[in-house]
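Consider the following assembly input.
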Amino acid sequence: MTTPVLDIIGVSKRFGDTLANDGISMSLGKGEIVALLGENGAGKTTLMSILFGHYVPDDGQIRIDGEELPPGKPRAAIGAGVGMVHQHFSLASNLTVLENVMTGTEQLWKLWSATQQARRKLVRIAERFGLKVDPDARLGDLSVGEQQRVEILKALYNDARILILDEPTAVLTNIEAERLFATLKDMARQGLSLIFISHKLDEVMATAHRIVVLRGGKVVAERKASESNKAELAELMVGRRVMRPVREPSTPGAVVLEVRDLGVRIGGVERLKDIGFALREGEVLGIIGVSGNGQVPLARVLSGTLARTSGELLLYGEAVGHLSVGDVVDAGIGRVPEDRNGEGVIGEMSIWENAVLERLPAYSHNGLVDRKAGMAFARSIIDAFDVRGGTPASRTRLLSGGNMQKLILGRNLSHRPRILIAAQPARGLDEGAVAAVHTRILEARKAGTAVLLISEDLDEVISLADRIQAIVGGRLSPPLDAGRVDARRLGLMMSGDWSHVAEAAHAP
Amino acid sequence: MRLERREHRPLLLLIGAPIAAIVAALALSGILIAIAGAPVFDAYRRILIGAFGSRLSATETLTRATPLILTGLAAAVAFRARLWNIGAEGQFYLGAIAVAAFGSKLLADLPGPILIPLLLVIGAIAGMALILVPLWLRLRFSVDEVVTSLLMNFIAVLFVSMLIDGVLKDPLAFGWPQSQPVADHATLPKLIARSRLHIGLAIAIVLAVVVYLVQSRTVFGLQSRAAGLNPQGALFMGVPLGRTLVKVACLSGGLAGLAGAIEVMGIKGYVTTDLSPGYGYAGIVVAMLANLNPIGVVLAALFTAIMFVGADGMSRSLGIPTYIADVTVALALLTMLVALFFTQFRIRR
């Protein structure tokens, strides 16, 4: 049995009418990795913010090595050895790695900073934990995974013994995430104690020693990872049995969208090259790939926000030129953008305005917006797609990610699109919302909609797609039937080795 | 201590915050009045008397508010779409000089009922023309319009200065640099006889209502708001960003140009380089005071006019510098920004 380095005792915190944390108690042993599992809004981040001194709890206390931590003092928390790795990094992109790590560690009125000393310490820590990064690189030039490493290094540089990671994999690719978890396990072996916040069952099962499940601000269960399973955790987290929908076999119909030799150059850089695929009624075509391989320009060309440089686009069998957003919407193409908050909605505008904005011609007469019809449409989406947390007139920003996504899906699917372009539709959503989104997509497929699913989540693609193509370096692999899929094949496809795909595609 | 976004804004707060802000500003400048050695409440009483105490002062206050409403609207419509038009001053002068140029000779033969609306449109078009330069630079080369529209002010004023000392110079002005006057039948009818108050005020208020309706009811209003709040999202939902910005710019520049036209046709009749005591810049303050709400702009313009006109009266009777009006308006802007901030956020421990 390890000795507890951290004790959270009966912590409560209320925001207005909601009790974000309700008498939460948990402990963390030396060298232990505890996963804090819970859906969005379960109170995970609030609890960690209290631990780190961002919030003052209404009730309860936090003990580190048996000593009570003064509430609401981040400096005291840092001093006691608590380090926090935020989901949205707290780093300055114009400074170097070393400068970022040193920021806040030196007194303001010192005449010169002990750069050499700091550099030695940083290099020593980096070597010890295998967090390789160039101390003199500008932070803005680093990849997201490397930036996260800097954020971790910064915490360790402050002599953190307890490391808190807030949804560390939300921004990482699969490979980066695996590397991160190897690092975390190594840190635990070297005596650090870690808490990581997550709502992804796979990574929790694979990494944590112990799992604390939070729901509605309360600890609902605590399990050893070795004595639990994904199904149990999912049920504990959501509070009811969650079934991800299952794809039923279907016979796809005619080709509605065909792309041949499509190319896109942006600023002289070739982003897409020789892209070709055919999308048929009633099927889901999955496009997998590591992020940054051309998914964004592909989705944008098909959504009408980017013009292609070359290639042919056949819509319902007819060749078409550049499509504007209006053309795309009029042609019965529904669009779910990758960046929900940035593109999918305008947060400061109301729900009904977001519902009608892409269809203003249909919701206006002589240049005047038909507010009544717009409100009615928003109301129908809210009812039919179970959008919770808002009325047609309330600001869209107030919706949670899952409900926002239901709104976006709803405004498209209500108009029974013939084609749906869905980019990362379930990214960052909690288990319940993922199931809802997947159900809607499969319903649309059943109703004959042709769905192009662009996703980095292999599980999602495997469970939804009839055929799969991989995008690598702006090129698209030949399609692979979902029936022939296995993890090894998909891995090879995403790495750009398509020899087996071609064989499989041509096999009788 | 930390800030939290308010998810619900009670109506009382939305109404109370601006009032509290004005009260706070008056209290703060009261300290300065006290330091200057005058009785604070008496000073404010005299400001009110100076602004409304007589028929003359009341009409004068409303006359002063007229251009402020229009330049305030010009700033408000542009800012709402995140188009930073700092060039209302130049647009004001260009609208004014255009009216002087066309109204003194070229079109002076037209009858009044045709000439007056025509000249107003010409003034508005002149304002639009000026803002299109910084807008084009932004759309074509991504040049920040804050800088370009501001610098256009100096070009415009110097251009006007050149005209009124050259081709448009009034030969009967004893050598003073001023433009030829617009024809008598091109002056705006008075709203109240034997005062300077003209129908420009009515035009300004009607336009405020029109702008309000355009912003809240039309496709253009919805699209320009979307473009301002989240250009990326607006683009995704099919808002033509460039075209929307051009329309917003034309509306903004047109309103500022119209302000200049109305000032010439309503009061002075001719253009000098001191036609505007900074109406273009004051419009920015008015718009911010009003939180970019077109109806609020009318009230904010009125407040600003009261302070400026009233401070003259107070200054004469109490011997306090009129600069107190500038200070009060500036303080009101600061307190208003703070108040608006607290309608959106609350402080939590």
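Chain A is about 35% helix and 25% strand. Ask yourself how this observation constrains the way the partners meet.
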